[in-house]
Specification:
Number of helices of chain A: 0
Shape of chain A: elongated
Number of strands of chain A: 17
Order of helices and strands of chain A: EEEEEEEEEEEEEEEEE
Low-confidence stretches of chain B: 474-492
Low-confidence stretches of chain A: 89-95
Largest sheet of chain A: 9 strands, antiparallel
Strand order of the largest sheet of chain A: 6-5-4-3-2-1-9-8-7
Strand content of chain A: over 45%
Helix content of chain B: 25-40%
Distance between the termini of chain A: 38 Å
Helix content of chain A: under 10%
Radius of gyration of chain A: 21 Å
Largest interface: A-B, 58 and 53 residues
Radius of gyration of chain B: 25 Å
Strand order of the largest sheet of chain B: 13-12-9-10-11-14-21-19
Strand content of chain B: 15-25%
Mean pLDDT of chain B: 90
Number of strands of chain B: 22
Distance between the termini of chain B: 69 Å
Number of helices of chain B: 17
Oligomer: heterodimer
Mean pLDDT of chain A: 84
């Protein structure tokens, strides 16, 4: 039995579930202690993210980002946070550190910062060119620029470390 | 009629064009670079020629070489790239190849945007106010003087532009220098031309285009107007026909004026006469576009006329064969552009693999796309990957149908502007049709009230988390349990 805290649009849900107990009749799921009837399509294909499920006889098609920070359904997009209440590593929050990586592959067009500079949240760090667009990459956190790992004209892959802020 | 057409474009518009070619019994030749091989236009064409890079689409000489090798009798440029490039039209003509679109003589007049505005002004029509000439990179002082004379707010526009590329609104003199540099840079990147001019902004405004068709004998009809005032990040995202703010009388005058202006240029083939309309309903001519436009399905749904077929027929010298009385515009059409862009991250492009795509179906729904489940949205091209259009007898039904179709449209793998579209179709000012350019707020993720739906989504997230956690830390690897594994050990 796993125990998770899921926060969607600021509303908290404590979800307990046991995937191993999966059978034709559905999953055993408790939300805030109340049983909820859940059916997921079987067989579950390894590596394929969950595309849809039935909760209390209503179907939901869902798309989530790999970091589980948002979830999208027919009703639109929602902010989300998932916390494992039983994990020993404690409540490690995703993201939020000062390591800025390339969200998409592209070309470094311009650099606005150098090591030692102080930056505020959202302050442009550099311009990443991709898909015929100039994309400003802003600082995710406030602080001092510890390192700049790229140069103008350099091509970077997705997730390439660009700038570190501490 | 033509036997074989080279489609000098890619993506959804190449798919759109080749479908009509096939229906007309014309062979199609398409182009692709290595990164774009998976796009639908390559898979559906009669012939596909590989080009070295995405840049080749801009290279008129290379395109002409391919056209000759492939022995085509015409080239369809789609939009962007070589569309409306008068020198390219002339080069084609010299080789006996027809460029599908207005003839060079027409383009020489309409493509000089400033000259075109002055010509229309001289004929006694209202036009947007603009700078006396176009400017190059080094002419900032002159530009600043001209800007002060015109007065703010201003729009800086690319002489070669289109699809909002290179267009920027400037509210004050301090913003001018930076905006000019940005516009010239974008314009140079996209169109290989850094000339810009200034236009006095009309605010609030509606952006309206009137679709026209004309043959070489001077026969001309209009197919009504399209409104494209909902703009985010300099791109029209949600468009409709007819324009909801217009009365029948105003529409009548506007469309008649569009035809009169087109006649000033002896216009031929399909085109769009574009206007800005101010809050008092006065309309100002801004330019004539001589290409097939992104939002053309709106007109096709209301008129039942295949605009690409008309382009091809007219370019082949056939007569228009219809009068204004033959044109019947029915009902209401809406179109939204689905882009591989993340609206919550300043519209950052999001190329990558589209793991899943299921398009909506049902009556009066149309999807123009090059994509499908499993295909790649390439980095080298525009982020537009699909257009969703719906039709209904009236606007309210059309809005409901668009919402339904968006909910049916399943996309996964890369972030798209789909959630923005869902949000827009709920915006009161869109729903009641009382919007203008800039009146819809920037998108934001709005916290929704607690519902059963959120509870279900929480369950989905929890399942996904547990599934992934199990695959990352399997207690007993699956392969250990299978006989294959044991056998392989025994053999070793």
């Amino acid at each position: 039995m796993s125990k998770l805290q899921v926060t969607i649009d600021g509303h908290e849900y404590e979800v307990q579930l046991n995937l191993a107990g999966q059978n034709g009749a559905g999953l055993n799921v408790l939300v805030n202690g109340e049983p909820v009837q859940v059916v997921i399509p079987t067989p579950v294909l390894p590596g394929r993210p969950l595309e849809w499920l039935v909760v209390d006889e209503r179907p939901y098609e869902v798309v989530m980002d790999p970091d589980l920070t948002w979830i999208q359904s027919a009703s639109g997009i929602h902010r989300m946070m998932v916390r494992d209440l039983e994990a020993f590593s404690g409540n490690r929050l995703r993201g939020g550190d000062g390591r800025v990586t390339a969200p998409i592959p592209g070309l470094i067009a311009r650099l606005f910062v150098q090591p030692g500079m102080m930056v505020t949240v959202g302050q442009p760090l550099l311009v990443l060119e991709a898909m015929k667009m100039e994309n400003e990459i802003g600082a995710p956190v406030a602080g001092q620029v510890l390192a700049v790992h790229v140069q103008p004209g350099q091509t970077v892959a997705r997730k390439h470390l660009l700038v570190e802020i501490g | 009629m033509f036997k074989r057409i080279l489609i000098a474009n890619r993506g959804e518009i190449a798919v759109r064009i080749l479908r009509t070619c096939r229906e007309m019994g014309i062979e199609s030749v398409v182009l692709y670079d290595a990164s774009d091989m998976g796009s639908l236009h390559v898979r559906l064409a009669d012939r596909c020629v590989r080009i070295p890079t995405a840049e080749t689409f801009m290279d008129g000489m290379a395109i002409l070489r391919i056209a000759q090798e492939q022995q085509v009798d015409a080239i369809h440029p789609g939009y962007g790239y070589l569309a409306e490039e008068q020198s390219f039209v002339e080069a084609c003509t010299e080789l006996g190849i027809v460029l599908i679109g207005p003839p060079a003589a027409v383009l020489w007049q309409t493509r000089q945007k400033l000259d075109a505005i002055q010509k229309v002004q001289a004929a006694g029509y209202l036009t947007v106010a603009c700078s006396a000439r176009a400017y190059e990179r080094a002419e900032l002082p002159e530009l600043q003087r001209d800007a002060a004379a015109l007065g703010y707010p201003l729009v800086v526009k690319s002489c070669r532009g289109g699809r909002g590329r290179g267009a920027r609104v400037i509210r004050s003199a301090e913003m001018l220098e930076h905006a000019i540099q940005q516009a010239q840079k974008t314009s140079h990147e996209v169109f290989r031309n850094s000339q810009v001019y200034l236009e006095k902004a009309i605010w609030p405004a509606h952006m309206i285009g009137v679709q026209i068709l004309a043959d070489a004998q001077g026969n001309m009809v209009h197919l009504g107007e399209r409104e494209g005032s909902i703009i985010y990040h300099n791109q029209k995202v949600l468009q409709e026909s007819p324009a909801p703010f217009m009365t029948e009388e105003a529409r009548e005058v506007l469309c008649r004026t569009a035809l009169e202006i087109a006649r000033l240029f002896d216009y031929q083939n399909a085109g769009t006469v574009e206007f800005l309309v101010d809050r008092n309903g006065r309309f100002y001519f801004s330019e004539i576009k001589g290409r097939i436009q992104v939002d053309h399905p709106l007109t096709e749904m209301r008129s039942g006329i295949d605009l690409v077929r008309e382009q091809i027929r007219l370019a082949a010298g056939e007569p228009l064969g219809m009068t204004q009385e033959d044109v019947h515009l029915r009902g209401w059409a809406l179109l939204c552009r689905l882009n591989a862009e993340d609206p919550w991250q300043q519209f950052l492009p999001s190329p990558g693999q589209l793991l899943r795509m299921r398009v909506p179906t049902g009556a009066h729904i149309r999807v123009d796309t090059y994509a499908y489940s499993g295909c790649h949205v390439p980095t080298a091209y525009d982020s537009l990957f699909a257009k969703l259009s719906v039709w209904a007898p009236d606007r309210a039904t059309a809005v409901a149908r668009l919402r339904r179709a968006l909910a049916d449209f399943a996309l996964a793998g890369i972030p798209t502007n789909m959630p923005l579209m869902q949000q827009l179709t709920e915006e009161p000012s869109f729903v009641n049709g009382r919007y203008h350019a800039g009146s819809l707020s920037e998108p934001a993720i709005v916290d929704s009230p607690e519902t059963d739906d959120l509870l279900a989504l929480a369950v989905a997230a929890a399942i996904r988390y547990v599934q992934r956690h199990q695959t990352l830390n399997p207690t007993l690897p699956e392969r250990m349990l299978s006989g294959w594994h044991r056998d392989s050990r025994r053999l070793g």
